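Would you mind giving me a polypeptide sequence along with per-residue structure tokens?
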Amino acid sequence: MDLAIKAGSAVTMDGGRIIKDALIIIEEDKIVDVGPRRELAPKYRGYEVLDASTCTVIPGLVNAHTHAAMTLLRGYADDLPLKQWLEQKIWPLEACMDGRSIYVGALLACIESALMGVTTINTMYHYFPDYNEAKAIAEAGLRGFVGHVCFEWRREEDLKAIEDLVRRWHGSYGGRVKVTIDPHAPYTVGPEYLKELRLLTDELSSKLGDRLLWHIHLAETEDEAFKVEEAFKVDVRGGVAVYLDRLGVLGPDVVAAHCVWLTDGDVEVLARRGVKVVHCPVSNLKLGSGIAPVPRLLSSGVTVALGTDSACSNNLLDLLETVKLAALLHKGVSRDPTSISAWTALEMATAGGAEALGLGQTTGKIKPGMKADLVAVELRKPHLTPLYDEVSHLVYAARSLDVRHVLVDGELIVEDGEFKRMKVEDLLVEAEKEKEKLLRRLGEKTSKR
């Protein structure tokens, strides 16, 4: 679609540039120009016009760590420690999920994300060939990274799933869908398997001519180093990231979620190896895991993105909420109101998220040559009036439901707050049916014990 977006303003995330009364010119899937409307309007005539004159337009938000299919488990198990939450509640119910339930949960996540201004998600979950998260992302029109989560106890099954996932989905839908290699965590994947997955990532990247990401949970809880030592009888002195570095598995293609309990050595290793960190403050707080040292990571030169984690531990996929919390949380902890600025928080959700996922030259900024992944946020509302500073409003005052329009690859997938690609009500009905199936299967399994 060739489109001219008439915006009240554009927060470009490109060198701090904010353009008032802006015009954004899109041809097919890319931005070809952006600037003041008075300068560009005479140059670009005959384009279809999207009126966002009461909105500020920003790059699409990037949710750099989630588990999309777990949206089907939203609210199932709350207010429990991570170990108990996983082992006693989540994993037993997840064992009842099939491809169809995974697909429905992921599709629900994609639509929720799109309506809240997220254009790219990075998701880790179990892969089934028939129905899966990749299919959901493709059909919803989002940009997405999809990985099959790997565990020590199912190596052969994992490797077959990865082979099928890569063959069917990597680079599909015009490159919108890409595959990642996803060891679950250092305490569930042993040292030899971690090295095997590292080698597989390098081999596939070379074969495909496209660098695949390596996506892992890291240092999420205070006892993680102990759990690794206990599970695999290895030396984790110095920190979990230090341990991974000794295995030779870290590099700039690694996306590490959480990174709450880091030693000084861990921070140094993450910076030196170019590892990208995903801060998930809502999930970490809800599970009582702690608070990641984000200011220290940023000052060390580590790229930090933001993630919601799953709707099972959040319980929303609301990245604007995450942006606000990321800005406020570290001010309170450090008692320094300058520790994470509004601009820095928004950058972690846009340009920083894109950089973390290897999309730094593709999306995350509003500039010529970038993909047209854009979000228009309505500002003509009581809670957003008066307007002094767009970034302040976006971080501290705006709500995700203020999102009015969303484009991915130049396609308008949300218009005037309505998801355009499918009938949402039908999916809501199907999601409730899938929930009932899961509970029935769980009950049947429990009764047989």
About this structure: The first strand starts at residue 3 and ends at 11.
